[in-house]
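Below is how a single chain appears once it has passed through the pipeline. First comes the sequence as given, then the structure the pipeline wrote out for it. We keep one example in the README because the format questions we get most often are answered faster by looking than by reading.
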Amino acid sequence: MDAKSLVKPHSAIIVGAGPVGALLALALNRRGWQITLIEQHDFSQGMPKSYDSRQLALTAGSVDWLAQTQLLPELMAELTPILSIHSSSQDNFGCLSMTHTEMKVAALGYTLSQQTLGEHLFAALAKTSVQLIGGIKLEQIHQTAMQVNLSGTTGEHTQHWQADTLFAADGAHSWVRQQLNIESQTRHYPHQLMTGVATLSQQHNNLAIERFTAQGPTALLPMKADNQAKVVYCYPSEDSETTQALATDELLQRVNYQLGRQLGNIVQLDAIVHYPLVEIRANEIQQGRCLLMGNAAHNQHPVAGQGLNLGIRDIAAVYNWAEDADTLAWFDLANTRTNDHKQTMNFTHGLVTLFSHPSTLVRSAASVGMGLLSFARPLKHRITRMAMGY
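Resulting structure:
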């Protein structure tokens, strides 16, 4: 037995078993850490409800990282590549097209269902030493200079856990963030969001559509079936009750009108979900030995599909740090991630604000600027690379 084998392995508590928490658990386990993954949902009833039929968009950068780390090798076959993207502005002439051949990449991005991701995550976790604990009502966090202590209850029984660090991946309304008294800034957008699975009148040919309108962006993202796509549709918040009460045929007419005819018509809508659009940004993401991850640190508008991808970049940064787990680098880690959060969230908010501005003149100018990007190739390349997660 050598000296290295006598060193106690690093340990971490991860709160939240959604995509960010579960993937972080796999990543830190790969580094040889002892991991306790705690979730409010009772695992005896299956995966958490967040792993449903909704479709996720992954950037090329996120998929490259997953491929390099080989955390979920079987997942690669489940991804649907986005080979081209067409962006336009309703009632304006400017448009922008991007292709994977132009960018010299295998794909501009990918889609998959949250349910599929969850199945692969939990199948992989079952093969590790990660301790999965579900059905927990958390009660208290206490930190010392050397460790974090967490307590919670299952029924009438109180349990206690301790580790070197705690990672909060418990969503936009994070319990951990509240317990640490970390304040956050909330921005309510004047739009609601509807997502669903669209059956198209023609094949999508791995084309993604993004159409900016005065009431927010509408988009189609290709799915595995060649005539199905994820649809994202924004509408004014004041029309929430009316829109949600619409018959499917009437809703189809509205969505088709917003999208234009680039991919024909949507002929059927399924798995429809409505929810408000809210941006939540934590004032700080680190306190002592605790770090906020994913939506616990940042929850932004879904335009450009950066949400989960920003969380995956959080995981990648922690994965790199965890190899040595240097104390000084712990604070640099938080600063680096905060800068990325600010840049990405400012970009997404800027897009929404500009293209849904109440002034027709401003929207027209934004559309012209988008069209001119086709001729400013270096700038177009730079913006596309950023959207791809590089």
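The chain has eleven helices and 20 strands.

See the next section for the split statistics.
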